[in-house]
Specification:
By secondary structure, the chain is mainly α. The chain contains seven helices and no strands. The longest helix is centred in the N-terminal third of the chain and has 27 residues, at 21-47.
């Protein structure tokens, strides 16, 4: 399936500068896979103010910073991609690791706010994180990647 040039540009902004348009098209769904899973789990965790779920997501986000790939990329690379005959996802870019750092900070804040009884603030911070995750999983617009590219003056 052909991916639109605007979608390719949004994915490229996530750090896929060395990939051709065709390679980005082939990676498009796989790139969204982690965001989709994170969005679903975050929605459930924040709506229920479930600290074990949010703590699990905190661990996953942190591992997205320190591992070459996001933990859900490993799930995709070693299971789903074989079923749908898609290429393996490359290691995560600096932009996407930056996004995981931001998610880690937002999750820490959300967990602490819920833990100390500031539920309204916890829902607000959690909703901001969910909004960013849903935005990238539905449109490929990754706000942390845009911020990273702006800070480091990277043209996408």
């Amino acid at each position: 399936m052909k991916t639109s040039s605007s979608r390719i540009k949004r994915i490229r902004a996530q750090g896929y500068f060395q990939c051709s348009d065709m390679e980005i098209s082939e990676l498009a769904f796989g790139n969204r896979f982690a965001y989709i899973l994170c969005s679903i789990i975050l929605i459930f965790g924040v709506i229920t103010a479930n600290l074990p779920i949010l703590s699990t997501m905190l661990t996953i986000a942190f591992l997205g910073v320190v591992l070459p790939n996001h933990p859900f990329d490993y799930l995709y690379n070693y299971t789903l991609r074989n079923v749908i005959e898609s290429p393996k996802l490359p290691p995560r870019s600096k932009q996407l690791k930056f996004a995981c750092r931001i998610a880690t900070l937002f999750l820490i804040a959300t967990i602490l706010l819920f833990y100390f009884g500031y539920a309204t603030a916890g829902y607000i911070v959690g909703a901001l994180l969910i909004s960013s995750a849903v935005l990238v999983s539905s449109t490929d617009i990754c706000i942390p990647s845009i911020v990273y590219n702006t800070i480091y003056k990277i043209k996408s």
